[in-house]
């Protein structure tokens, strides 16, 4: 029998302690967060890192975790609705109706009945859609819808007698034509800028803003020179712009769950994909 105080016994004890310390250090390393670099599946078995599990066992683990009280109390993520179709609806409606008047379709030249839609549907609703785009983090849509919401409200006010805009220029119609041309020229510039920013979006939006810029340009020129034919041409371009808006609106709300004729928006070359 060996003596516990002998050198050989001391060496055995030291080796045992070193081995225990090594295991403890290993356990500490194993207790740290580990990164799984590879997950593979082979029939009934799934390998996660160096561990292999049966599919059913993993499914049971996940089901038990989802049924836990902690998971049920976890706050649920709320998806926000897309406000872009609402903005397109209000814009397309007002653009179509005003453009029909500008084109003198069926001899209509007085847009008085459209003042209310300009103020509330094209103005307030489109402005509201722009503010909702702020909530969803869509800077471009927020800028476009809010700005054009302001346009429709302004155009409605100009054509409202209570604001006295037309009465202020009753003695000088040419000045009224010139100031209206200035107003439209500003929208030519703004629409051109947002049109440049739509070149990597969808064809519907690109054509909508392109036709709309031509609408403002022709209305501006027609107002300055007093040419009805140029103004009518602007009206027809406005109708084309509204058609693109209707198409983009339908693409935004139609799908296989709510209809039999869903359409999709076609992306332009180099458009960002999700």
Automatic annotation (TrEMBL):
The keyword Kinase does not apply. The keyword Membrane applies. InterPro entries: AceTr, Gpr1/Fun34/SatP-like, GPR1_FUN34_YAAH. GO terms for cellular component: plasma membrane. One of its GO terms (molecular function) is acetate transmembrane transporter activity. GO terms for biological process: nitrogen utilization. The chain crosses the membrane at residues 80-101, 113-135, 147-169, 175-196, 203-225, 231-250. It holds the Pfam family Gpr1_Fun34_YaaH. Keywords: Membrane, Transmembrane, Transmembrane helix. It is found in: Membrane. It comes from the Eukaryota. NCBIfam families: AceTr_1. This is Uncharacterized protein. It comes from Torulaspora delbrueckii.
């Amino acid at each position: 029998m060996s003596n516990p105080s002998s050198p050989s016994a001391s060496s055995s004890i030291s080796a045992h302690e070193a081995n225990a310390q090594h295991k403890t250090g290993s356990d500490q390393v194993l207790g740290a967060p580990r990164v799984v670099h590879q997950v593979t599946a082979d029939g009934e078995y799934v390998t996660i890192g160096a561990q292999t599990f049966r599919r059913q066992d993993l499914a049971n683990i996940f089901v038990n975790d989802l049924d836990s009280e902690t998971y049920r109390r976890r706050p649920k993520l709320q998806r926000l609705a897309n406000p872009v179709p609402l903005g397109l609806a209000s814009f397309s409606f007002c653009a179509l109706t005003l453009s029909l008047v500008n084109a003198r379709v069926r001899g209509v030249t007085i847009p008085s009945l459209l003042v209310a839609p300009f103020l509330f549907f094209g103005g307030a609703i489109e402005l509201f859609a722009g503010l909702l785009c702020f909530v969803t983090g869509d800077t471009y849509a927020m800028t476009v819808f809010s700005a054009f919401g302001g346009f429709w409200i302004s155009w409605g006010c100009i054509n409202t007698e209570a604001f006295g805009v037309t009465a202020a220029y009753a003695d000088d119609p040419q000045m009224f034509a010139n100031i209206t041309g200035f107003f439209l020229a500003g929208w030519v510039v703004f629409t051109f800028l947002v049109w440049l920013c739509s070149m990597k979006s969808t064809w519907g939006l690109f054509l909508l803003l392109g036709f709309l810029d031509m609408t403002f340009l022709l209305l501006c020129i027609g107002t300055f020179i007093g040419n009805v034919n140029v103004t009518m041409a602007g009206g027809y371009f406005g109708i084309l712009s509204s058609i693109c808006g209707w198409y983009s609106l339908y693409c935004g709300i139609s799908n296989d769950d709510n209809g039999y004729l869903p359409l999709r928006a076609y992306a332009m070359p180099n458009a960002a994909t999700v």
